[in-house]
From TrEMBL:
UniProt keyword annotations, A-Z: Coiled coil, Cytoplasm, Methylation, Protein biosynthesis
Protein name per Swiss-Prot or TrEMBL: Peptide chain release factor 1
NCBIfam families linked: prfA, PRK00591.1
Organism: Cognatishimia activa
A single cellular component GO annotation: cytosol
Coiled coil, from the record: 43-90
Length: 351
């Protein structure tokens, strides 16, 4: 079990932060203190609940020696003992090292895979699924770059999502999403299988990535308006190439200054993601589990429309409520993936 000294250290740190914030902590970084305080709060609540349970157990065991109280103790003890393993597990999960990126906003990139027009239509369906999910959670979903097909599908879309714990909730969505359905373009009614890839990247902060201006080539291009409606064709679209990695980012809003800002943010986020992947692969070279690794070549989920079924292959979870899932009701899947990842981390620590 967790050493008591560690629980004591965490509790003392929490009380210190509480006192600092109450005093206004002159000269301290209030935002950093508040973040650490809010990160520690749920951990300390679990510690307090666990300690309370141990105290109740001790008290009930002491009552066994008192003839007047023995009967009551015999009633209470089994129930208290039954709660102990669950309380220990909840505490261990609360103490797991947090992914530093969990609380950050995220960029989401969706692209069709195999399957032509049908894959592009499915990519559009996935975009709407994530937009609805974001809306239900009170997040702000902004489309940065969108390239649509004539049939209303998507060749590529990049979105920016802001809100609470965005990356923590969406990081398991990275990978290949497969769809099985009869395309609306198919007259014979045959079921087709096609796919789309999703990449969810935590947004980089300035402290994460320093970019040398000499490593960038910045081109401005004519922004092509939808269907040639924009007569005003100013050189507003911006393309930034990061020479060392060959990463290319474009943004084509109406304002060139805003484009440069957006493109730089997307570039930083992609570079930060590359660095996270490098560190992650070094650390987990021996770990087989794909959950949480964000491997985008891995088929993670199948959406079977004729059967109304969604299956997540990483945890063998099957739900027969595809309509609700496509409407953005994905919390059950996210919770199951989070729990599976936590269980794998606990096993790693104990192994």
């Amino acid at each position: 079990m967790v050493p008591f000294e560690r629980l004591e250290q965490i509790t003392q740190r929490f009380e210190f932060l509480e006192a600092q914030m109450a005093d206004g902590a002159a000269g301290a970084d209030i935002a950093a203190l508040a973040k650490e305080y809010s990160d520690l709060k749920p951990v300390v609540e679990q510690i307090q609940a666990y300690r309370q349970l141990l105290a109740d157990l001790e008290e009930a065991e002491a009552m066994m020696d008192d003839p007047d109280m023995r009967e009551l103790a015999e009633e209470e003890l089994p129930a208290l003992k039954e709660q102990l393993p669950e309380a220990e597990k909840a505490l261990q999960i609360a103490l797991l090292p947090k992914d530093a990126a969990d609380a950050r906003p995220a960029m989401i990139e969706i692209r069709p895979g195999t399957g032509g027009d049908e894959a592009a239509l499915f990519a559009g369906d996935l975009l709407r699924m994530y937009q609805r999910y974001s809306e239900a959670r009170g997040w702000k979903f902004e489309i940065i770059e969108e390239n649509a097909t004539e049939l209303g599908g998507i060749k590529e879309v990049v979105g920016h999502i802001k809100g609470e714990n965005v990356f923590a909730r969406l990081k398991y969505e990275s990978g290949v999403h497969r769809v099985q359905r009869v395309p609306s373009t198919e007259s014979g009614g045959r079921i087709h299988t096609s796919a789309a890839t999703v990449a969810v990247l935590p947004e980089a902060e300035d402290v994460d990535i320093q970019i040398d201006a000499n490593d960038l080539r910045i081109d401005t291009m004519r922004s092509s308006g939808a269907g040639g409606q924009h007569v005003n064709t100013t050189d507003s679209a911006v393309r930034i190439t990061h020479l060392p990695t060959g990463l290319v980012v474009t943004s084509s809003e109406k304002s060139q200054h805003r484009n440069r800002e957006i493109a730089m943010q997307v570039l930083k986020t992609r570079l930060y993601d590359l660095e996270r992947q490098r560190i992650d692969s070094e650390r987990s070279a021996d770990r087989k589990s794909q959950v949480g690794s964000g491997d985008r070549s891995e088929r993670i989920r199948t959406y079977n429309f004729p059967q109304g079924r969604m299956t997540d292959h990483r945890i063998n979870l099957t739900l027969y409520k595809l309509d609700q899932v496509m409407q953005g009701d994905i919390d059950e899947i996210v919770d199951a993936l989070t729990a599976d990842d936590q269980a794998a981390q606990l096993a790693d620590m104990q192994g």
